[in-house]
Write the structure tokens for this entry.
Amino acid sequence: MSVLLIEAFYGGSHKQLMDLLQEELQDDCVLCTLPAKKWHWKARTAALYFMQTVPTSTNYRFMPQHKLARLEKIIGVKRNGDAYPLEDLPGQEKSRTLGGLMRNSKAHRESGLCEAQPGLHTTQREDLPSPLRALARLNKSDASESTNPCQEEEEDKQHLTFNISNILSGEDYQQRPLHIAWPHRWEHDKDPETFFKVLLKLKEKDLPFHVSVLGEAFTEIPDIFSEAKKALGSSVLHWGYLPSKDDYFQALCMADVVISTAKHEFFGVAMIEAVYCGCYPLCPKALVYPEIFPAEYLYSTPEQLFKRLQNFCKRPDIVRKHLYKGETAGFSWAALGGKFRSLLAAEPREDL
């Protein structure tokens, strides 16, 4: 078996899954990626980039014969990986192919899509259209820059092992304030505005709580983060991305409640990880969450979220004594590993 893994958003939980599959499949796995930036552009145009850079191999082109024939005709690629001269294509096909490449190359220039990362298993072919080659070279330098703009601010902290238990060591466990965790990307689709609005309302009511904002930041950070950090003041226990998984899980283990305010979520790995670490989850009654979490852990409006947290701030022992009522064993690699292997080893079908 030889498996080609393509990931246009190589970061966070996406990266975690790709790395796990590559580790488990070892030599049978080829990984091609793009950095975790500009999600909306990746969704639109990443296919063009991968079409030009993924090395051709008969071992993993899970495509029926009729589609392979069509692919040969449209993009001028033989099944042995060589390119047909565009002049050999019919006039209309040639025009459409060239026009599509130029239009999408312009989109690449405007979006910064073609961000090849050094060290990844992506083969950069020399037959790329010149705008794509130039972008690939330029973005090698981009990839070396930090994806966390807060790194300079947090630089001194990152040289120390994060140990939140040291911060809390002087407080009796049951007497300390409720500790709320928000372990999501610092982007608008995770709706940080709603999260911080609820927290600031708690603070206005003089309710005691601590908060750890643990998600990863990228190039463009919503203004609400700097505003909220200043407004929350001493309630902030930790602010910023923890590159060490051990430190990250330790922070989750010390938290009482984990919250999602996401407006876009296919699964929510961060929430499941937090539940494994003993956190009480509060999620929107929408998206994928009702399929994973029992009704007790769902809220419908920000007002409901505020009321739940208000009660927990007054009685943090409620969540500290709580035993999670959902099932998590089915999300482990022990349960899913065999299914992934069976799926990736499946024979190609004509209805793909």
User: Anything to note?
Assistant: Residues 151-321 form a domain with the Rossmann fold fold (CATH 3.40.50.2000). The chain is about 45% helix and 10% strand. The radius of gyration is 24 Å.
